[in-house]
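Record pair follows.
FIRST:
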Amino acid sequence: MKPEEQLPMDFLDQKLTSEDSTTLLLKERQITNLRKLLSYIRALPYGRNLNRQDLSLVIKEKKGTCSSKHACAKMLMDLNEIKEVQLVLCLYKMNERNTPGIGPHIKENNLSYIPEAHCYLQIKDQKIDLTKIDSDLSTLKNDILEEIKINPEQITDFKVEYHKNYLKNWILKNDIPKDFKAIWKIREACIQELSNK
């Protein structure tokens, strides 16, 4: 059972009523309520958008990352006056167990994990991960380092700087024998691995 299926039926059945261009594009695709919106965004392939600041590209390009998908969903819920929704940025210990496919990049660099930024939605009391069709936040539960609430526009510069600053401190505090540039390069290789799947 997906976490949102535990939300009240009347909450999930809230209609998309906004006349903004992105909501209208969704309505053309028969996405008319919150339940359909969550299912649609979850089913979109994982991939970076051409312009991270234009959240409508998740719908137009039919793809997105954990950041863009969740920020787009939050933006649309705000536009459609759907309440009790928060966009959350967390940092977690990215490893092969919780992020399958990236293990070789971590192992060949003698690391047990790399702190990675991840976004999800907090809807009422449920944590909802729309990154991929089979995303399950419970796999990260024991690996979350910290969480903060952010606004959709913060998934660009703020999120990147927040993540980079955390990594720099992590390298220092843990005596990691690699500099920030090397760690960021390994991290980018991991993300590319996920995009290729």
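SECOND:
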Amino acid sequence: MPVAAMTVLASLCLASAAAQEIPPPIGKVVPEGARLEKLFTRTAPIKGGLTEGPAVAPDGSIYFSDIPFGKDKGMILKFDPKTKKTTVFTNDSGKSNGLMFDAKGFLVACEGADSGGRCVSRWHVKTRKKRIIADRFMGKRFNSPNDLCIDRQGRIYFTDPRYVGPEPRELKYRAVYRINTDGSVVEVTHEVEKPNGIALSPDEKTLYLADTNNGTDRIDPDKPPPKQGAMKVYAFPLGKDGLVNGPRKTLVDFGDQAGCDGMTVDVEGNIYLSVRSLKRPGIMVINPEGKEIAFIPTGPSQPGAKKPFGIPSNCTFGIGPESNVLYITVDQSLYRIRLKIDGYHIPWEK
């Protein structure tokens, strides 16, 4: 959830999109004539921020975060593909960002900083009751849990950078952690500058990780602002224990452009990257070797824009009749597009 993208307003998106042409999607996974369909744009009286973290529920509904700036409370919203209506699941999300349903049908949320929960929590969607799964590593509070993925054993991998929020930092690293099924927390890697989007390959032998160091930081207000750092996507090999057992590989290097935010994978193991580059905003689809095989633009090329729009934050696939439908959070909106391939999800318990 890089700060530079959080200044976008939905009204600007609508007005600007009409004046600038967005290129059509291209690539092997995109059907001819496929186009993005807008499903929702924020109407709540909250300030700044963006939509984030789409996650599909066992009933096919899409839950996603709506994250404002500062003390305004964040929300989790629910889109129903059958009625095309969006409703409020909770109007106090703890500043949730990344979301994902576990195998038992509970909604797991990464709660960020900036007056948020700074924890990983689990929601019972029927009772709408929440409990904190983990908020510390070795007794120290997390920086700002951002995004997550869950393996078939139920272990939760999540990233812990810090993009916004004046809360004091307690942990030395911006790292990737895993919450085991017994509630214990282990560090997976801190070989990253600012970990953001995260995903597992379908065989769970590879961990994909976005390093999105946007050079903004409110943690040390008395120091000069840091410079932009790594904008890359890595692949880490995992051993049978689900921990890193070899050197990382760089799949994509975005150079001086904004890189990847959230990500997801399809059944063939291709990775869908939410790319925030102002030159080329959209969903970049790469194979496991890092070769681009498709691109779904979400906005026009707009280098140097002061108020950019059409900038994606995250994506996920639907299930059932929508197993090949990709949902994308963009600015303060939710979109979808039907593709030629199904998304991958861990199996749910019956």
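COMMENT: The longest helix spans residues 10-19.
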